[in-house]
Amino acid sequence: MGGNEGIGILQLECPQGHGVGRVLREAAFHAVQYDPGAAVGPREFWPQEDDQGRFKAHCRHCDKPVWESSATLQGKLSELMASESETRASATLQYL
Ligand SMILES: [Zn+2]
């Protein structure tokens, strides 16, 4: 009954479909965080103030930087958080 509202996990992928982390909010009262993966580094608040409107990550498999506009990713995450039935989605980033 709407228990999922306000939470969401957006899986981020490079153009080849490799995971490059995820943006998530695990509870409605939590802040949004970027999780690069436990093996890569700690979670950080997202978006960062100094990202200049672009979210950037690095695909370890392709060894290439990837990016997407922060607004696009925020839009997708908001859609997900507004949904009562969906808590997961994925977004494909572009090579820089
Ligand atoms: Zn890749």
Protein model, in words:
Helices cover 14% and strands 39% of the residues. The chain has one domain. The longest helix has 13 residues. The strands form two sheets. A five-stranded mixed β-sheet has the order 4-3-2-1-7, covered by helices on one side. A three-stranded antiparallel β-sheet has the order 5-6-8. The radius of gyration is 13 Å and the shape is globular. The protein is built from one helix and eight strands; from the N terminus they run ββββββαββ. With 96 residues, the protein is mainly β. Bound molecules: zinc ion (ZN). Zinc ion binds next to loops.
Shape: globular
- Stretches where pLDDT is under 50 for at least 5 consecutive residues are none
The ordered H/E elements are EEEEEEHEE
Please identify the oligomeric state.
Answer: single chain
Cofactors and ligands present? zinc ion
Any chance you could write out the topology, listing elements then pairs?
Elements: E1 8-13, E2 19-25, E3 33-35, E4 44-45, E5 54-59, E6 64-69, H1 70-82, E7 88-92, E8 94-95
Parallel strand pairs: 1-7
Antiparallel strand pairs: 1-2, 2-3, 3-4, 5-6, 6-8
Give structural attributes.
single chain, 96 residues, five-stranded mixed β-sheet, three-stranded antiparallel β-sheet
Brief sketch in words of this structure:
The protein is mainly beta and 96 residues long. 14% of the residues lie in helices and 39% in strands.
